[in-house]
Amino acid sequence: MIIVLKQHSGQKEIDRVENLIKTKGLDTHIVKGAGQTIIGCIGDTSRIDAKLFEVNPYVDKVIHVQEPYKLANRAFHPEDTVVDVSGVKVGSGNMAYIAGPCSVETYEQVLSIAKDIKAAGANMLRGGAFKPRTSPYSFQGLGPEGLDILCAVKEEVGLPIVTELMSPEYLDVFNEKVDLIQIGARNMQNFDLLKQLGQVDRPILLKRGLNATYEEWIMSAEYIMASGNENVILCERGIRTFETYTRNTLDLQSVPVLRKLTHLPVIIDPSHAGGKWWLVDSMAKASVAAGADGLMIEVHNNPEAALCDGAQSLKPEKYSELLKDVKQIADIIHRQ
Amino acid sequence: MIIVLKQHSGQKEIDRVENLIKTKGLDTHIVKGAGQTIIGCIGDTSRIDAKLFEVNPYVDKVIHVQEPYKLANRAFHPEDTVVDVSGVKVGSGNMAYIAGPCSVETYEQVLSIAKDIKAAGANMLRGGAFKPRTSPYSFQGLGPEGLDILCAVKEEVGLPIVTELMSPEYLDVFNEKVDLIQIGARNMQNFDLLKQLGQVDRPILLKRGLNATYEEWIMSAEYIMASGNENVILCERGIRTFETYTRNTLDLQSVPVLRKLTHLPVIIDPSHAGGKWWLVDSMAKASVAAGADGLMIEVHNNPEAALCDGAQSLKPEKYSELLKDVKQIADIIHRQ
Amino acid sequence: MIIVLKQHSGQKEIDRVENLIKTKGLDTHIVKGAGQTIIGCIGDTSRIDAKLFEVNPYVDKVIHVQEPYKLANRAFHPEDTVVDVSGVKVGSGNMAYIAGPCSVETYEQVLSIAKDIKAAGANMLRGGAFKPRTSPYSFQGLGPEGLDILCAVKEEVGLPIVTELMSPEYLDVFNEKVDLIQIGARNMQNFDLLKQLGQVDRPILLKRGLNATYEEWIMSAEYIMASGNENVILCERGIRTFETYTRNTLDLQSVPVLRKLTHLPVIIDPSHAGGKWWLVDSMAKASVAAGADGLMIEVHNNPEAALCDGAQSLKPEKYSELLKDVKQIADIIHRQ
Amino acid sequence: MIIVLKQHSGQKEIDRVENLIKTKGLDTHIVKGAGQTIIGCIGDTSRIDAKLFEVNPYVDKVIHVQEPYKLANRAFHPEDTVVDVSGVKVGSGNMAYIAGPCSVETYEQVLSIAKDIKAAGANMLRGGAFKPRTSPYSFQGLGPEGLDILCAVKEEVGLPIVTELMSPEYLDVFNEKVDLIQIGARNMQNFDLLKQLGQVDRPILLKRGLNATYEEWIMSAEYIMASGNENVILCERGIRTFETYTRNTLDLQSVPVLRKLTHLPVIIDPSHAGGKWWLVDSMAKASVAAGADGLMIEVHNNPEAALCDGAQSLKPEKYSELLKDVKQIADIIHRQ
C-alpha cells in the first residue's frame, strides 16, 4: 500500500501519518519528491481497510499494490485448481459442457433434453427450479418440485445436475441433491448467502454480477473460500454496458484475465449474455478459442413454448453440431 | 404490446402469430405496411411474458407500450404516496432528513451523533449494524449488538431508526425494532428477500442497485408491494459508470423521472454515491433543488477513526450548516 | 510516478529498471517490501509516457501520482479563471445564462426567442448553424446562412452568440463572428481541431464527450490551452450509461470535482443530457445548487415544429419562470 | 414507425396527430386498445425525424420498427460485401491479416517488422503516422514523414498499407498513397470528416467509437456510403465499460450482430481493446472463432522501446505462432 500525502505537507504532517500507519502493524518507507511525499507501507496490507487512511486530512490518496484476495490468488497458488463435480473434472484442460433448459417444466421435457445433450457430448445437466425474475408476475420456477424432476432425470440419464440456489432456506436440500450449486449474477454480492456456502460440501458455480469488476467477482469467490469451501468455478455471463441491442455484453477478456489473477476454473454462459439464440453458436466457439474451461448453454426441445428465456435456447440438433466444432477448436488450443 | 413480424411474412404466418396471441387472452389489430406487418395486442399485457412471442420464428421484435408494473405506477395511483415512519411523514412535500454514522460502533458514539443531528434538524437516525462489505476480511458490523445500540439511542433521543437488513434470518427482529428497514443496493434484486418484506409492518427503504434501470428498480418495489407491503421509499445512491474518480455517478435525473413514473417517495444518499465527503455538500443541495423527498447523509463525530466509510462522512457542524442551506432551497422549490 | 516491480524481482532487475528511469531524467527512490519492490520516481513526470515502463518485463504496474495536466490544473493556478465572453464574465461567481434554439431556422424565429430570453435574464444566445447528426439523412443545419442569422440577431438584441464549430474549414469565420465557440461532445477528442483552436482569439466552450472521464476532458482543455488559448469554459452535458430512459445521465458531481481539479469555469447543459423538456426545470435548479457557473438551455417558441431536438426545448415563459427560481438558489449558494 | 398516444387521448387528439403524420407523406393505421391508442405509420420512415412527433403534446412515445440505415443494411443488400484493398480481398470468407507497429518510428523498424509479418502470413501492413493521443505532451506521430516511410516499405515488401487519417487536411495525400484509410474510434462521429470520405477512391476502415452503439456505428458507415464511397470495413476495438483492469472491453458479440444487420466486412483489433499484449493471443483466436473477417494486430520488434502502446504489441515470433493457430480455427469455421 502506498500513501500519497497532500502537496507541500510538512514534516509534522508526515510524522503523524507515519505514526498512524505504524499503529496498524506496518513498516514505512518515506519518499520525498519535489513538493510531493509518498509513504510506502510494508507488511501484510491485504486485511487493512484503506479507508482509515483516506480520511486523514494530510492524505491525498491511497494506492493498492497487492490484490485484496489470498485464497483465490494465483500468486499464492500457482497451479490450476481442478474442481470435481461428482466425478466430472473441471479446470486445467478438463472441459465442462453444461446444457439444459432454462426452466424445469416437466419430467418428460427434462428427460428428453438430457438424453439429447448427453448424446451430443455434454457432461452436466442444467435446469432452473428457482428462477430469479425481474417481475413478480413472471413464472418463478417450479421450486422443490423442479428439483425433484432434475434428480429423477439424473438417476435415469446419469449426468450431474447444476441448478441455482436463491435463498439460504434451501441450503440443506441443495447440499443433499445438487451436484454443482449455482449462485446467480444478482446474488453475487449477497454476502450473507456466500458465507453460508462454506458449510456446504458441494462445489459452487459463481456467476459474475452484471456490473461486477474482476476484483469484486474474485472477492465473492474469496468469501466462499474463506468460509470453508474452496471448490468454486467462475462463470462469465455478460456485463451490463450502454449497448442494448444484446441483453448484455459478453466479456471474453475475462478468460485470460482470470487465468492470470486466479487459479479457479472459468466457464462461459453465452446464452444469457446475448439473450438471443443466434448469438450462441459463434460466442460458444469464441469462448473455447479464448481458453475457457467450459460452456453453459441453454438447450430446449421446443424453444417456442419454453416458460422462460426461450429466445436464447438452442434446439438439441443445433447444440450437437456446435459441440462438434467446439471440440475441434478445443483441440487446437489445448495442443499448445 | 406490439408485435412486429419479419419482413415479407405471408398471410399464413400472420394468422399463426395472431392465433398464438389470442390464446393468451388478448385481442389483436393488424397493420400492414409495405413489406412489414405489425400486430397490436389489446388487453392487459402486463402479466404476459413477451418472450413467448420473441421466440416465434415469424416474429422480428416485440415492443412494450405499457409499463410492466401496476401497484407502483403513477398512472394507476396519481396522488403522491406519503409514507409514515413512526410518525415522520415522507413524500408529497414532507422531507426525510436521515443522518448518522455508516457503522454503529459504540453507544456513546451513536448517542453523541444522534443528539447533534437532531439539533441540526434531522428527523431520522441511520447507522449500520449489518454491513455489506466487498471483502470477507473487512469489518462486517456489530450485528444484533449494533441493533441494540440503535434502539437504546432511539429511546434516549427520540428519532426513528433506519438500518439495513441483509438476510431473512433477522426479519422478525427488524420488524420489532427498526422503524424503516433499508434494503441495500446489492440486495435490490435479492427477490427472495423482497418477497418476504410483504410480511413486515414496517416501511421499506429500497436503494437502487448499482446497475439497475429505473424500470428494474420500480419492479423491485413492485415485488415488495405485491407481497403485501405498500410502504416503500426509493433511495438513489449512485450508479456504476465508466467514471472512476468518484465511487459512483449520482443520477439526479432519477428524481423527476421517478416522480413521473411512480407515486412513491424518492430520497437521495449523496454520501455513498461519490464516496468523498467533500462532494456531499453540493450534491445534497442539488438533490433538494431537483425535488427529492429527502436526504440520507453519513455524519460521524470522528471520521478519521470511523470503522468504515469515514471518507464520505461529514462532521456534525458541517451537517448542521448544510441543513440550513438545504432548507432554504427546499422552501424555494416547495413554494411552487 | 511509482513503479511497482514484479514480485520477487532480484537486485539485477531492480538495477535495470532504475537505470531506465534515470535515462528519462528522473531521480529514483527504492522501497523494498516483503517480496515486493517499488520505485518512486522523482522529478517532472507529467510529460513522460508511462507506457515506456509498463512494457518492461520486470515491471508489474506503473502508478501515477501527479495529474497529467499543468495549464488547466488548479494546483498550479489556485484562483478561479474568469472568462470574458465579449463583455459577459463567466466563472468565480459570475453566471452564464445561455439560451436559444437547438437549430437556427429563420431570422424571425431567432429574433423572437432572443428577445424573450433576454427579457427573462439570459446573457448569451445559443443556436446551432452546423449540427452534428447521427444520421446523414437528418437536417444538418443551415450552415453559414445560420451563422449570418445569429449575427443579425446579435446586432439587433445585443447578446453575445454561442454556436458549434465542427470543422477547421470554418475556423476563420467563427473567429470573426462568434463570441463563444462551442466544441461539441463528439469532437471533444478531435485533437486536430483542438490544436487549431490555439490560433483563435475567442473563448472556447468545451463540451464533455459522452464517455470522457474527468481527466480526459481536462486533457482536451489542456490541448487548447497548450496551443495558446487559455480561455476555456467546460460544459457537462450528460454521459452515456446503461440507463436508456433518459438520453444520457447528467453527472452533477462533475461540478465539485472539476472545481477541485481545475480553475476553469464549469457550466451545465440540462437540455441535451436528458433529452426531455420536462427534465430541464429540476436539473437546471440542481445544477446551480451544485455550484455550476452557468446553464445552457434550449428554448424554442414552437418546440413542436422545431427542426431538431424540439423534445428537449422549453417555451420562453417556462424559461422565464425557471430563471427566477434559479437566481434565488444562486443567491443562497453564493452567500457562503 | 409506431406512435403511441398518451393514455385516454380523445378522438380530437387522435385526429390531430394523424393529420400531422399525413403531412409527412405517410399513411396511418389506428389501433385502439383499452385506454391506449397507437398509430402505425406506413411508408418510408427512414428519413423522417421522429423528434417531430415526440414533441407533440398528445404523443407518449415513438417506436421505430425499421433500421435508420439503407445502404449499409443487409435487408436491402443480402450478399456479403467484399472490399478490395489494392488486390487483397476482405469479406465473405476472405480474411484480412493486418499487422505492424503502433507508430511508425524509422524506415528500418518498419521494414524489419513488415518482412516478419509477411513471412508469418499477414496480408496488410499497419503503422501510425498521425497518432491521436489523449495528452498534448505525448508523441503525436511522425506525420507526413511517417507516411513516406510506410510507402517506401510498401515498395520494398509489397504489402498494402493501412494508416489513420485524423484531419481533412491530408485527404488528398492519403487518397494518393494509402491503400486502406483508417478512421479512428475518436473520429467515428466526426461527421464532417466522414462526409469528405465520399470523395476518396480508397476503401475505409471505420473503427467503432468507444461508446458507440451498433446502430450509431453503422450510421457512421452510412455517412461514408451516402457520400459516395461504399467500400467500408468495420473494425471493433473495444468499448468503454465500468471494468478498468483492461483498457476497454472487447465486444465479440459485435461479429454475429453486424453480420445480421449489415453486409459490410467486420474485423477485430484485439491489441487496442485490452491494452495488454498477453490478452492478444486468446482474443485473436476468439475473434476468428466468432466469425470475424480479419484481425488487426500490433507487432513490434522491440516493444520495450516502442514510442507508443508498446504494452500491447506482440513480438514477430509470437505473431507468427498465433497466425498458425488462427488459420486452423478459421478452417474449422469456414468449412460450415
What does this structure look like?
The structure is a homotetramer of 336-residue chains. Chain A is 35% helix and 18% strand. With 336 residues, chain A is α/β, with parallel strands linked by helices. In chain A, helix 3 (107-120) packs across helix 4 (144-157), helix 3 packs parallel to helix 11 (316-334) and helix 10 packs parallel to helix 11. The longest helix of chain A is centred in the C-terminal third of the chain and has 19 residues, at 316-334. Chain A is elongated. The model of chain A has no long low-confidence stretch (mean pLDDT 92). Chains A, B, C, D: Residues 82-332 form the DAHP synthetase I/KDSA domain. Chains A, B, C, D: Residues 1-67 form the DAHP synthase ferredoxin-like domain.
Classification by helices and strands of chain A: alpha/beta
Helix content of chain A: 25-40%
Q: What is the terminal separation of chain A in angstroms?
A: 37 Å
In percent, how much strand structure appears in the residues of chain A?
Answer: 15-25%
Oligomer: homotetramer
* Greatest contact between two chains: A-B, 50 and 51 residues
H/E series of chain A, N to C? EHEEHEEEEHEHEHEHEHEHEHHEH
Instruction: Give the low-pLDDT segments of chain A.
Output: none
- Overall strand count of chain A: 14
> What's the alpha carbon Rg of chain A, rounded to whole Å?
23 Å
* Sequence of strands across the biggest β-sheet of chain A: 13-12-11-10-9-8-7-14
Instruction: Please give the largest β-sheet of chain A.
Output: 8 strands, parallel
Shape of chain A: elongated
Overall residue-averaged pLDDT value of chain A = 92
DSSP helix count of chain A?
Answer: 11
